[in-house]
Amino acid sequence: MRREGIEVADTKTSAVDVVTEADRAVEALIRSRITALRPDDAILGEEGDDRPGTSGVRWVVDPIDGTVNYLYGLPDCAVSIAAEVDGEVVAGAVVAIPTGVEYAAALGNGATRDGRPIAVRPSPPLAERLVLTGFGYQREVREHQAGCVASLLPEVRDIRRMGSCALDLCHVADGSGDAYVEAGPQPWDWSAGGLVLREAGGRFELLDGTFTLGTHAVRNVVVGTPADGWDSFVEALGRAGFLA
Ligand code: IPD
Ligand code: CA
Ligand code: CA
């Protein structure tokens, strides 16, 4: 399929916010499986309507996180699924599409990569941290994000923009990144990866951001680091203009 090229099926918030037939087909498959097994659960999926439920369980689904990478044949793209009970994320899985590498976590039970336990590595000094980040699809959001990242860059080892928030959080969880920050991702981007990071010994939080776009606040700044690196990273994010 990849060799034949992948078509953009539609655009969403801007001309570069694309959706492919695969995004839709994967989400439809996940929804039909969940609905067949658990008809009373709610579903929040990026590509479909919110489905209300009565059980207190809600599934949070990103059928392809890293769609632009998927479109170009780049490796960082994944299926991300989390389960919440009464609003708390209790389980999550992030599966890399090209390789099938599977990150998983259950609340209180640790995190794994292909079934083997993973843990964050101790944080180096701020100047030696490899920071992963991402950008939204709207011009004004990107201008804000770019300004913050430009201020942060001289303070750290380097910045990576790999293209999948869910996998980025898993990279911090298994020690192949030191920290993640992005202003504005949605629950389907971070729910599963955030639990994987927490269960691997990291700290993951949504902090108040500085940026608003019209009436729409890009308030949630998604932040994840090993627990020992949290304070110094958050201070750096404040200096860089990410935080309110
Ligand atoms: C995007 C990716 C990206 C992040 C964006 C997300 P999508 O999700 O997670 O890394 O920077 O904010 O929207 O559109 O590829 O599902
Ligand atoms: Ca996403
Ligand atoms: Ca997506």
Which structural class do the helices and strands define?
Answer: alpha+beta
Topology order in helix (H) and strand (E) letters:
EEHEEHEEEEEEHEHEHEEH
| Rg over CA atoms | 17 Å
Mean pLDDT: 94
Fraction of residues in helix: 25-40%
Number of helices: 6
CATH architecture of the largest domain: 3-Layer(aba) Sandwich
The spatial strand order of the largest sheet comes to: 3-4-5-6-7-8-9
Terminal Cα span: 45 Å
**Strand residue percentage:** 25-35%
Oligomeric form: single chain
Shape: globular
- State the low-pLDDT regions, or none: none
CATH fold field value of the largest domain: D-Maltodextrin-Binding Protein, domain 2
Whole-number count of domains: 2
Family: Belongs to the inositol monophosphatase superfamily.
EC number: 3.1.3.25
Catalytic activity: a myo-inositol phosphate + H2O = myo-inositol + phosphate
GO molecular function, one term: inositol monophosphate 1-phosphatase activity
